[in-house]
Amino acid sequence: MPELPEVETVVRQLRPVVQQNKLVRLRLLDKKLRGVNPAELRHMRVYKVSRAGKQIIFHLRHARKEPERHLAIHLRMTGTLIWQRYAERSGGRKVVPDVSRRNYWRKAADILPQHVRAIFYFEDGCVLFCDPRRFGTFALKADAAGFRPAGLEPLSRAFTRKKLANLLRLSSQEIKPWLLRQDKLCGIGNIYAAEILFAARLHPRRRAGSLGASEVQRLHSATVRILRKAISFCGTTVSDFQDTTGSAGGFSRLLKVYDRENRRCRRCRGAILRIMQQGRSTYYCPVCQT
Length: 290
Ligand SMILES: [Zn+2]
Fold this sequence. Notes:
- This protein has 290 residues and is an alpha+beta fold.
- The chain folds into two domains: 4-147, N-terminal domain of MutM-like DNA repair proteins; 161-284, Orthogonal Bundle (Helicase, Ruva Protein, domain 3), CATH 1.10.8.
- The chain has helices at 4-18, 38-41, 102-107, 161-168, 175-179, 190-199, 213-232, and strands at residues 22-28, 44-52, 55-61, 68-74, 80-85, 87-88, 94-95, 116-122, 125-130, 137-141, 273-277, 280-284.
- Strands 5-9-8-1-2-3-4-10 form an eight-stranded antiparallel sheet. A two-stranded antiparallel ribbon has the order 6-7.
- Strand 3 (55-61) and strand 4 form a beta hairpin.
- The longest helix has 20 residues, at 213-232.
- 35% of the residues are buried.
């Protein structure tokens, strides 16, 4: 499931191609995809692409000072957004892909036509919303503030060591499941929770409220450091994630504990363990994390 670094990767890759581009047409191919009326967005220009928690937001309007529309795309489990520039024939005429043409799909690597749930046709290319398991959602709002997540954004300036200490205080929950709580911090899932705790040298079963000042400091800096580094490597691919070019995330090979049960710890050479916490796997090093 895409976490903050994967969603941020998609946003950063879409910005240069979609921002200031006109959405000629949005075509929905899956009846399950509700929450947006494509006719309403026709010919609107995307003036900004941003991220709110794990949602990708297209900010649209016809012109400055005209009413705005904000489309939130949530990738959920297996959603990906793939950018494809139209091929250009001599004379500059653009070739808009026709989804009914079978050889078009054969050319587009790894994309199965039945997995494409929506197509955003822009002036010089299109964004394909591919989603084999069909859990991804669209939502449309007049006010972008409506998409603001409940939890604190860990890469914002508001995420300070003091704020984190206040959030952790009084919580008797174990720190690993606590990190997954989207009402506390947004965007952290199972992969980065494990990597952050390894970087902070904290045992995943520690009680959130029991962390001392120096431990909170370590957790705070590890959170920012790991998320930033993962973004710089275009995220992590464990099973499905692809960026907008169809490539896997480069952070996978830098994982220190996640999905490495019984393998050697890259730091102390001991064995990585796996335990279950609230029905989900947690990977950690019993020597490095206390
Ligand atoms: Zn270790």
